[in-house]
Amino acid sequence: MRLTRAAGLGLLISLALTACVPTATQRSPAETAALHQADTLRQQGNFDQAAQAYLTLAGNSTAHADAYRLNAAEAYRQEGDLDKTAAVLANIRRDRLSGDEPVRLDLLRAEIALHHNDPRSALNLTTQPSLRVPQDLQLRLLEMRARALDAIGDHWTAARTRAQMDDSLSGLDRAQNQREVLAQLGKLSVAELQQRARAMTPSDRMLPWINESLSQRGITVATPQPSLDQPVGTMMPGADANIREGYQMPARIALLLPDSPEFASASTSVREGFFAAYTDASRTHAPRAEVRVYGSDGTAAGAVKAYRQAVSDGAELVVGPLTRAAVTAVATQASLPVPVLALNQADDNTPPSASVSEFGLLPETEGAQAADHLIERGLHSAYVIVSAQDFAQRAAAAFKAELVARGGQVVTQASLAVGAINFTQTIAGMNIPATQPDAAIFISMRPEQARLLLPQLRVAHITLPVFGTSHIYGGTDDAGDDRDLEGVEFCDAPWLFDAQPGLPPHAGIAALLPAASGGAARLFAFGMDAWNLVPYLGWLRDHPGSYLPGATGQLAADPFGHVRRVLVWAKFTDGVARPLTGSLQLDAPSVAPPEPAPGSGLPAPASSAGQP
Q1: d(Cα 266, Cα 522) in Å, to the nearest integer?
Q2: pLDDT value of residue 18
Q3: Where in the sequence is the signal peptide annotated (predicted)?
Q4: 207: number of Cβ within 10 Å
Q5: Tens-digit pLDDT profile for residues 190-217
Q6: Where are the alpha helices (DSSP H) in 406-446?
C-alpha cells in the first residue's frame, strides 16, 4: 500500500523525511538537474520512479552515493515496499553520511527490524544514548520506539512515549495517537493503573491519561477542577475590534435535538437558550453562522439519520445530539465528515475523536467539585447521604473519588429511597457526630427530599455543615419551603444568580421565556453555552488553561475533547439561595435581554428545518 494513500500519524511522520544530501562536494549541472528531477518525482508521489532516479544518481556519483541511496530507501518506504527499502539499506555505509542522515538511516533500519518481527533491534536503534535527533525527526523516533515497546510487551513505557508526542500533533494525527496511548493503557490491569496513579503528583502528564483509561472502563476517578489561567476572547492586536483571539465561526451549523414527547421539554429549553445566545451575539457584529434545527425521533438511529442529513445539507458543525445513547451512536460512526459538539457524554468505552467534543451537565462534575470545596474549607471527613436515583449515585461516586484523592475520607454513606419520608433510622445508623471540626455532610437529592432530611438531622442534634449539588435547588426562590435548607451550600450554574458578567440577566430572560425559569433554567443556560462554545472549541482544546466564562460555569476543555465546568457556590440564607462571594466574579451584568422574534416566543434563528 502506498503511504500517500494512508491517513494519520504514519503519513505525517513519513513526510518529515525530506531529501537531504551533503553539499561539501560541488555537483555538476547535469547531476543537479537529475537530483531536482528525482526530488520532484518524490514530491509528486511517484515514489518508485523517484527511488530509481536516486539509485541512478548513486551509480554516477562517488561523493554522494550513500546519501542518494538513503533517499531511494526512503522513497521505497513511502511507496510501502519495505523489502526494496531493506535491499537498498544493505549498500549504505553509515560513516559516509552526514547531518541528519545517520538518524534517518537508523529510523529506517528500526522500521525494517519491526517489519521482520525484531523489536529488540528496533528499540536499540531508537534508544541510543549518544544519538542526537533533530527536532523534525523526533516524532518519527518516538513512533518507532513506541511500536517496539508495544511489541516487547512494555505497554506502560509505550504509552508514556506516545504521550510525549501529543503536544506536537493536531487534528486526526493527534486523535489517532491518543487512541494508541489509551490502547496501550488498556492492556494494563485496573489495579496497576490505580497503583501508578496513587504514586503520581497531580502535575504528572500521565495522570489524565490513566484517568481517561479508567473512565472508559466505567471506573470513577478523581477529577480535579481544570486550571483557569486565561479567558478566551482576548482582543487580537491590530485586528477588527470585534474579532478576538481563537474565534473561528463555521458558516453553517446544525442543531440536532430529539423531538419525541419524552424529551420535548428539555429540547425546548436547550433550543431557546441556544437562540437566545445567538441573538445576543449580534451586538458584537462578529460573524455568525446560519443555523438549522434538525429533529430526531428521540432514538440513537434517529440521531445518526439527522446527522447524515445535516452533513448532506452542508453543515460544517453539528451541535448535539442530547441523549447519551444518541451521542454514542453518532460518535462511533465509521466516518465523521463534520465535527460534533455533543450535548452529553458518550458511553464510557467510546474512544476519543478529533471530530467530537463533549459538553454535558454531568452530576460527576458537581460531586467532584463538592469534594474540592470541602478540602479547601479544611474539611477532610464526610458523611454522604444521597438519593437512590442515578444522578445522585453518580455524584456520590465522584465525590468520594475526589475526596480520597485529596487526602480525605468518606466515613459512612447512605441512600434514601424516593418517596420515603422518615429517615430517623438511616441517620442513627450512620453514627454522625453532633459536631466535629473537620467533618461535613454531603447530599445530592431533589429539593422535596432535602426539605425532609435537613429538619430530621437537626432533630438528631447534628450540626455539621451540609454541602450539596445543584439538584437541591428548584431554580427559583421559595423562601417559605427552602427555610428547611437553611445554611446548605451547593454548586450550580452562575447564570441562575447573575454571577457571570457579560450575559443577559436571568430574570429578564425568564420573564420572556418560560423555558428559562425554574429547573429548566439550567438547560436554557446549557443551550446558551452550546452556542457560545462554537467559535472557541478548537482554541479551548489546543490551549490548556484557557476558558470561556459561561452561563453554566467557567468552561475549559481537556485534550480528549471533554468540556469541563467550574461552577459557582451558593448558600441558602433566610430561605433564599444566594451566590457566595469569591466563587466567581459577582459584578452586575450589563447586557439587556434579547428581543424575542415576533409571535414565536423565542429568538429567531437564521434559518430552521425540522424543529422539535
Answers
A1: 10
A2: 43
A3: 1-19
A4: 18
A5: 999 999 998 998 889 999 999 999 998 9
A6: 424-429
> How do residues 445-460 score in pLDDT, each as one tens digit?
999 999 999 999 999 9
Task: Mean pLDDT check: name the lowest of 86-100, 157-171, 570-584.
Answer: 570-584
CA distance 597 to 599: 6
**CA–CA gap between residue 316 and residue 311 (Å, rounded):** 7
Q: Provide the grid cell at 204.
A: 504528572
Distance CA 256, CA 439 (A): 45
- Burial per residue of 112-132, b for 16 or more beta-carbon CB atoms within 10 angstroms, e otherwise: bbbeeeebeebbebbeeeeee
More confident residue, 376 or 14: 376
Q: Determine how many CB atoms are found less than 10 A away from the CB of residue 87.
A: 13
In 3D space, the residue among 523, 573, 588 whose CA is nearest the CA of residue 272 turns out to be: 523
Smallest CA-to-CA distance from 317 within 327, 331, 326, 307 is with: 307
The residues pairing with 571 across neighbouring beta strands, listed in sequence order, are 489, 578
Q: Tell me the per-residue pLDDT of 340-379, one tens digit each, with 9 for 90 and over.
A: 999 999 987 787 788 999 999 999 999 999 999 999 999 9
Residue of 489, 545, 544, 214 lying closest to 369 (CA atoms): 489
The residues near 23 (Cβ < 8 Å, ≥ 6 apart) are: none
453 to each of 421, 429, 578, how far by Cα in Å? 8, 14, 21
Q: Which amino acid is at 286?
A: A
257-277 pLDDT tens trace:
999 999 999 999 999 999 999
- Strand 546-549 and strand 489-492: the pairing is unpaired
Cα(87)–Cα(68) distance, integer angstroms = 14
d(CA 430, CA 8): 55
Q: What is the pLDDT of residues 500-547, one digit of tens each?
A: 998 999 999 999 999 999 999 999 999 999 999 999 999 998 888 999
Instruction: Classify 2 as helix, strand or coil.
Output: coil
Q: Whole-angstrom Cα distance, residue 67 to residue 107?
A: 15
- The predicted model scores a pTM of 0.82
> 290 and 251 in contact (C-beta within 8 Å)?
yes
Cβ atoms 400, 384 nearer than 8 A: yes
Sign of the dihedral through C-alpha 205, 227, 383, 381: positive
